[in-house]
TrEMBL record:
This is TIGR01777 family protein. Residues 3-221 form the NAD-dependent epimerase/dehydratase domain. Residues 248-294 form the DUF1731 domain. It comes from the Bacteria. InterPro entries: DUF1731 (IPR013549), Epimerase_deHydtase (IPR001509), NAD(P)-bd_dom_sf (IPR036291), SDR39U1 (IPR010099). Belongs to the NAD(P)-dependent epimerase/dehydratase family. SDR39U1 subfamily.
Amino acid sequence: MNILMTGGTGFVGTHLVKELVARGDTVYILTRQERTDSEKIHYLTWLNGQQPDLTGISIDVCINLAGAAIADKRWTEGRKQLILESRETATEALVSIIHDLQPKPKLLINASAIGFYPTSQTTFFLDTEEHEAADNFLAETVISWEKAARASGIRTVFTRFGLILGTDGGSLPLLTKQFAYLAGGPLGDGNQWYSWIHIDDVVRALLFIMETDALEGAVNITAPHPVQQKKFAELLGQAMRRPAKIATPAAMIRLVLGERALLLLEGQRVYPQKLLNQNFEFTFPKIEDALANLIEE
């Protein structure tokens, strides 16, 4: 296959490109910076006033992973605008490319997030059901992001990613740092749900979506066994052989992180019903196995 991708040099993109190339696909990565091509990876400059030249290239699948990082900086009004506009701009530009491609790609995979769902201790958020969106900045971003992708005119999947765990990116390096200083434990009351997924299963799920025509619309990319934060902390402490007894008050987290604290203090219990309905098998369905694998690395 020929794959056209944005965000191909980020955390998820890097892992995905590696697997695509390993199975023989050719990847065309849209980037703002000039990079050196390899046999199976080609970099195309875009969003600098020019459209990439795809003359003579038949694209099978488009994957949109572009967007400014959400968790790494305080959410000033300027930062929030960048988070939102970076996603809207990249998605709208990619949709414009799709409209011009002949023949049309068969699929657009557009990154999204479970931040669409409201915080709840009791509701199980299935992607086979309709749910009201949360009333916060994250949900507003997801709604705008998915709306822009709907204009593609081809089969579109919104991959609502949960808490992605990996050793070279995602949330785990920050969470393990807390335990390295012997300060691990519950955040706030610790009852908030963590709907997590191992990076290897993220990549496998994306490849599965590419091969499964029945999948369309919102698809939850989370493991089938979410856990509450205090349980997550307990198991992470066990994996690292560190105590998990020091609770961090919610007020302190909000003081330090501001509005961004909702990433740690609020959560949703999300279930990947669509993937399971299509018989997708997780390599790491339970958090114990995922942490054992990642901490051992």
